[in-house]
Amino acid sequence: MTTEESTTSKNRKRKRQRNPKPSKEELIETTPKNQNNKKSQRDTKVQQHGGSSASSKRPKSSNFLDALRERLSGGQFRMLNEKLYTCSGKEALDYFKEDPEMFDMYHTGYQQQMSNWPELPVNSIINWLLSKSSSLVVADFGCGDARIAKSVKNKVFSFDLVSKNPSVIACDMSNTSLESSSVDVTVFCLSLMGTNYSSYIKEAHRVLRPSGMLLIAEVKSRFDPNNGGADPKDFVKAVCDLGFTSVLKDFSNKMFILFHFKKKEQVNSNQKIIKWPELKACLYKRR
Ligand code: SAH
Predict the structure, then answer these.
(1) Which of 52, 62, 157, 178 has its Cβ near the most Cβ atoms within 10 Å?
(2) Dist. CA 269 → ligand 1 center (Å)
(3) Burial 238-258 (b: 16+ CB within 10 A, else e)
(4) What is the model's pTM?
(5) In whole angstroms, what is the distance from residue 82 CA to residue 229 CA?
(6) How far is 248 from 255, CA to CA, in rounded Å?
(7) If you count DSSP H runs as helices and E runs as strands, how many of each does the chain have, helices first?
(8) Torsion angles phi and psi, residue 52, rounded to 5
(9) Closest ligand 1 atom, CA of 122?
């Protein structure tokens, strides 16, 4: 490298340090490769956040600090997200018990991510519930900000690792306080995160009454066998072996897939060994 090149690159480096780019996260492999929609995504974001003019009018120093803060919290979000996908529910519960602020950090990053999705899976689930009787009792496993409970008239039990409002029950959802056969609908919306995800589905099976429904929405890339994801057929087979019938598989959305299962009336007394496919972690990278 010549001195000139090296100086230029040093200058560039310095310039970058002075003007850190705000960190934007990208869902690895799930954001459509054809980035023609980048502009439309940006436009959507602008609409959702009320336009960019407010931030461009801010003084420079404030822009710099905002960018720095965003970069730091983006990094923490990626770290927490990876942790949740690669540890057990019990470990995640212990982690957030020790540091509940990290839960807020995670959810700020999560909401930021979701603002890039054209359609939210939780809304599909809410619409499904709204089309059914409001007398159905619902259990929302990994409820986040408990949007389902806020949007429907049904009785909803909302579970998450940390309770940010009194209606949310803090627990590891492999072990809820619900009675067996006591609810009509169980929901996992982007929440099959732990390495022990099968124990969450077993818990849902326990608390569901016969013919009760299990609704699962998950990130599409986790079920893309050509990209290291699970084969959806293996996943459906495992859930059915547990004691469900498959009612719906919807692959039409770009970002997430939806599964609906119905709990079998009769529990099979021949306990099969169930082969649960590994669901790959859904990681985000900086862009
Ligand atoms: N269902 C919500 C939030 C999805 S984010 C929505 O669609 O908006 C996934 C949520 O699952 C997080 O809030 C996370 O804390 C929760 N979660 C992950 N593992 C959990 C576990 N073992 N027990 C309870 N909640 C869990």
Answers:
(1) 157
(2) 31
(3) bbeebbbebeeeeeebebbbb
(4) 0.80
(5) 16
(6) 17
(7) 10, 9
(8) -95, -5
(9) 7
